[in-house]
Amino acid sequence: xxxxxxxxxxxxxxxxxxxxxxxxxxxxxxxxxxxxxxxxxxxxxxxxxxxxxxxxxxxxxxxxxxxxxxxxxxxxxxxxxxxxxxxxxxxxxxxxxxxxxxxxxxxxxxxxxxxxxxxxxxxxxxxxxxxxxxxxxxxxxxxxxxxxxxxxxxxxxxxxxxxxxxxxxxxxxxxxxxxxxxxxxxxxxxxxxxxxxxxxxxxxxxxxxxxxxxxxxxxxxxxxxxxxxxxxxxxxxxxxxxxxxxxxxxxxxxxxxxxxxxxxxxxxxxxxxxxxxxxxxxxxxxxxxxxxxxxxxxxxxxxxxxxxxxxxxxxxxxxxxxxxxxxxxxxxxxxxxxxxxxxxxxxxxxxxxx
Length: 354
Known about the structure:
single chain, 7-stranded mixed β-sheet
């Protein structure tokens, strides 16, 4: 499988400014929506029990199964009626949001699948991104493409990578920790058995035969991959080399899907790109993944070099000296993708690593 190198002779194309403005409006709506509705918006239904009316939100879950969220009752209770009205307003605003998202999807904006959106939704509702947790990996790459206002070849993945660089000050974490939070999606998550007997699990998957996984990651202090406790989530994570650099600078951005939009924390595009070049050297025995890392890095580097002056220089300046030589070793592959098409960005990268 060859990694695509061209997008109409360049690594990316810019979206029209009008479409970027539409996306910015969606970002504002996502940031101000409060609690994220999980699944499709659905509708309010009524159940009669013992002569009284009780409310529920009926909706399609991320797996396409019909679910209900109990909203309480009986009707006429002021607190219940207020709660139902708030949910009804969120349903209508989310439906409006989805209409706008569908229009942008036709123009090449990146959409997450429904299960990923639900997972991001419950993590957001529990305050993980606000506390500092960071979405990384290919889903973060798609978010960054939209944020930069560019379209490029994307990579489908069923892996969600959540990184935590420091203790997360969270409130109302359920006793079951991260696993219980993930189950609020309506997806039956289970712990993935560890590779070594007696070690705790560091990832979760949907029960049954599926490749849908959620990985919890933390920085490693060296080149090893230790298992590290994350007590505030009642979970364990895998330590990754170079991850501290990636998490050193992050930003809030917006993930969109056919079920809605959610604000998530992602690395800055400069850190993401340079980190991709770093980790490509960790995957020298995994050629396709290594090529994917370099390609994603080059797309972002090209866009930054041509539209965000100084971002590449800043990302390289933050690199530890020990990592600079690692990135330099990737430059021949970078040149193959960027020379003659994105010379300015390539020159900025080479000068920043000199």
